[in-house]
Amino acid sequence: MKRLKVMSIFGTRPEAIKMAPLVKRLEKEEEIESVVCVTAQHREMLDMVLQIFDIKPQYDLNLMKHGQTISDITVGVLKGLEGVLAEAKPDIVLVHGDTSTTFVGALAAFYQKIKIGHMEAGLRTDNIYSPYPEEMNRRLTTTLTNFHFAPTKGNYENLIKNGVSHDEIHIVGNTVIDALLQVVQDDYRFEEEILNQIDYKSKKVIAMTCHRRENWGKPMENIFRAVRGIVERNREVEVVFPVHMNPAIRKLAQEILGGVEGIHLLEPLEYMAFANLLNKVDIIVTDSGGIQEEAPALGKPIVVVRTETERPEAVDAGTVKVVGVEEEDIVREVEILLKDSAAYEAMANAVNPYGDGKTCDRIVDVLLNYHKNN
Question: Strand, helix or coil at 120?
Fold first, then answer.
């Protein structure tokens, strides 16, 4: 029997992290020919992940440009993939999540009548502008997809509401857990020496990320002022903040958080270092979507500085709390976790709703079953 040709398309660091364990699993399967195409919507951060997981793409569109707009990315991915798909002729294209690469990758495959598998399908906030443009990207991708790989039952129900057939949805968990469990090490040493010098046992250490487009401006200023206030009021607290490369974010971070004792502003960390940082800290303050999935597997309370989340499962499980973007709300909720051990333990010991590290096996089983019957 002819091998099933599966092309994985991704372009950003978060996509790469979540696609990497599946790519490695596909490479091991004798009945599957695995092909990788990266768009490099992100470049340096993407390359770090490819190196960690030893992934060598067969196709690289290398689209990253300084100051690129969403339109630039959309046009570049669509045009670049036209020739790649015509040459490679995959049987199935796999895309992940909600980036511009995800939506346009699915659209490009549809134009050439190639089957599409969407990993992390069914996430919804029901607000097309939050997160922007991700919420619309994931909705549009759903309309093009043949295999919907949903992390949770809630995602499955979202897809059913959107008119997707039950037979096309597969609840498989989230591959981010597969990736995380491969890289976390209890005895990990960081290349960034400051991270080795932090006293994680006697200090209360907070890992922070903040970059989402909808938080730019006043919301981000509120978040940074809240974190500064927490550190100034609680001298046992240290904050580690790998600052996003966006110049506006870096400027604001320096203005509000720079030079404050106990706050460490770092360059972005590669994936293995960041995963191991999450494993060592006490609390995570973030506006990231993916971290809401990763941190529960490590038993870390997550304070989400957004007004809504497309990952309500972790909120329902009790490991994530969405606190909004007002300074006083952020300070109050973080200080509860710092001072109330019962509240902290309730979040830290909540059950991870995103899987058991076997998501890749389930996805491969679905693909092989399709191949066997077609």
Answer: coil
* pLDDT band, very low/low/confident/very high, at 311 (cuts 50, 70, 90): confident
Active-site positions? 98, 120, 134, 211, 213, 244
Q: pTM of the full predicted structure?
A: 0.81
DSSP 3-state of 263 = strand
Q: Is the pLDDT of residue 252 over 80?
A: yes
What local confidence, expressed as pLDDT, does residue 367 receive? 98
How many CB atoms within 10 Å of residue 197? 9
Give the Cα separation of 153 and 166 in Å (integer): 12
> How many CA atoms does the CB half-sphere of 5 hold within 13 Å?
10
Q: Tell me the CA distances in angstroms from 372 to 3, 34, 115, one per residue in order.
A: 10, 17, 15
Task: Give the residue among 302, 221, 288 at the shortest CA–CA distance from 254.
Answer: 221
d(CA 126, CA 112) in angstroms, rounded, equals 30
CA–centroid distance for 58 within its chain: 23
DSSP notation for 236-253: TEEEEEE--S-HHHHHHH
- Integer Cα distance of 75 and 167 in angstroms: 33
- Please enumerate, as own/partner, the contacts of 263-267 that have beta carbons within 8 Å and a separation of 24 or more: 263/227, 263/228, 263/231, 263/238, 263/239, 264/194, 264/195, 264/198, 264/238, 264/239, 264/240, 265/241, 266/192, 266/194, 266/195, 266/240, 266/241, 266/242, 267/242, 267/243
Distance (Å, whole) CA 152 – CA 129:
23
Query: Which DSSP letter does residue 148 get?
Result: E
DSSP 8-state secondary structure symbol assigned to residue 2 = P
Where are the alpha helices (H) located in 326-358, listed in sequence order? Answer: 327-339, 341-348
Q: So what's the pLDDT on residue 256? A: 98
Residue 206 pairs in a beta bridge with: 239, 283
Q: What is the largest CA-CA distance in the chain?
A: 67
